[in-house]
Each structure stands twice: as C-alpha cells, then as structure tokens.
C-alpha cells in the first residue's frame, strides 16, 4: 500500500457509546442519571481534545524479525481513577484473575487478535505484532469504552443505563478495529469517511463475536453491544446491523436514530457529522452481503471488507460510494466477475441506495 497513508495517520478518539445517546441521558429528570451522563460527556470531550492536539508521530516500525503468531496482551486496572494505563494486573500467559472484568478484557483482546490472524493473516492491529493493552475500571461509573490511538479503555458503567463495558466481546473488537483502520486506510473521523470508520469497527466487531461463538451469518444476532444496556433500558443493544434504527427505543435514551438506507441519511453537525448514526448504511450493506452469501461471514464477506480496508486504494477521505465501488472491485478481484460474491455486493449497495458508478 502507499506508504504515505501509513505515516500520516490522524489521531482518533473513538467511543462505543455515541454522544447523541449520552446527550439524551444528560437531560434525564433522574438527577443521578443526568449527572453520570454529563460526567461521561465531559470526560470524553476532554479526551477527544487531548487526542486532537497530541498527534500520532508515525506508526510503530515493522519488527526486524517476523511477528509472532501469538498475542502480547496486558491488562491494567485504573482503580476508578483516570490516569492511564493504571496498575498491571494480568500479562500474556498469566493465570486467571479473581476479577471477571480483567478476564473478559483479556479474552476479548485474544478473540480480536485470533480473528484477524486466522481470518485475514494479520498479526495484531499494525500487522507487526503490536502489543495489545487494555485498562479496566476506568473512572467512577464511567459510561463508555474507547480506543485512544494506543490502547483500549473500559468503564464499569453505572449499573443502571449501562453495564460493565467488557461484557460484549464485539465492543472490544469494535474499539480495537479502530486501531486497524488507523494503521491502514486511516479514514478521517468526520462525515462519510468517519461513518465508514465506525462501520468498519461494527463489521469486524460483529465478526469477532461470530467467530468466537462459531456462528453462521444466519445464526448471528447482528447486534452491537448486546447485553450492555442496563436493566432499566428499553432496548437490546447499541446498534443493529440487520435492522438499523431498531436497537433501542427508550424514554431516557430516545429512539435509535440509525438509517438503513441513503433515503434517511442524517445531515448533522453533531457527532463529527453523524459518524455513529450514518454508519448504519454501510453496516446494513455488509449484513446483506453476509446473509446473501451465507455460511461464516468472515470467510467471504469479511474477506472482501478486509481487502477493501487494507488494499491501499481506500483514501482517508473516502465516502460511501468510494467504498461501494472498491468493495465491489475487491469481490471481483478475489472471486471473479458475475459470481455470487459480485452479485451480493451489487445487491447490497443497491438496496441501501449507494451508487456503484460515478
């Protein structure tokens, strides 16, 4: 791929719970809910600003020797403070911790590493064996998880609107995939390129869950963050790739605003131009491709998406039409013109209203 892509990657701060959802919670008449949501928003804003003014200085150079096939995981405990990374509590190969949150984070890092290695031949986030670090128990009742450009960070949730952010392996995979994007196409986190960035994380987060559970595309729930919403929330997850806009409909959190097609594309200045909202469109396209092809989603549909993300032609400012065109070309390159894969791509992008030409 073009080396210029890899040496000018943009600092990113990517949370799994979008700002629009926390904005709703911050308006709650329940003062505790409102205060916790506001506190999370303020913390996220501070971290986002810090990432913007602390640019990443090039990527980690490739190792002199071939990267190992084994992950290098370290889990830290912030002990409810916000200083990173915190105290080391489990390293690669260490026995189980007494803390289930630590063990879930460790297992999630491993599941992500394994899917990228076994599915796509990629050795860690940077394809050069980059160590995978995660911090748990971040802040007090912090209602989010994020990739800060270097490591994963998980809040415990408030036990009311959100539960522990390590409970969903797809959330762990989602955030780590932001790192893969950072080291490959480096999609700018705004507008359609930002929505593609978010969608890549949802796609591979879902694939990591399906791979871990040995599910076919027909068996998968296609939900992002299932099990994450608290007992008092009316909803099943943060997002649905199968049916964008249906993941939740709650008095406090509002209704899931994701569109499934370009007919309902949301033009907004918030959330970096709606990166967590309009990502529903490419998400739904992937769901259509995967279910059209059937079987294990990472084997063909996931391979096409990975080829597109890492092939070198997807530019940092790519829009949906660019991705549709390049993913269709990637299907033809790998599987040939006119086959099931090519037809599935054409059907999917047509269904969501993204043109393949022009």
How is the secondary structure organized here?
Blueprint (H helix, E strand, L loop, with lengths): L2 H4 L7 E2 L3 H7 L5 H23 L19 E5 L9 E5 L8 H21 L11 E5 L8 E3 L4 E3 L14 H15 L7 H23 L9 E2 L14 E2 L8 E2 L3 E2 L15 H4 L5 H14 L7 H10 L9 H16 L4 H12 L7
Strand order of the largest sheet: 1-5-6-4-2-3
Q: Tell me the overall shape.
A: globular
Mean pLDDT: 91
**Distance between the ends:** 24 Å
Oligomerization state of this entry? single chain
For the CA atoms, what is the radius of gyration?
19 Å
As a percent range, the share of helical residues equals 40-55%
Low-confidence stretches: 1-8, 53-64
Number of DSSP strands?
Answer: 10
The major β-sheet equals: 6 strands, mixed
How large is the count of helical segments?
A: 11
Order of helices and strands: HEHHEEHEEEHHEEEEHHHHH
Q: What proportion of the residues form beta strands (DSSP E)?
A: 5-15%
Structural class of the secondary elements?
A: alpha+beta
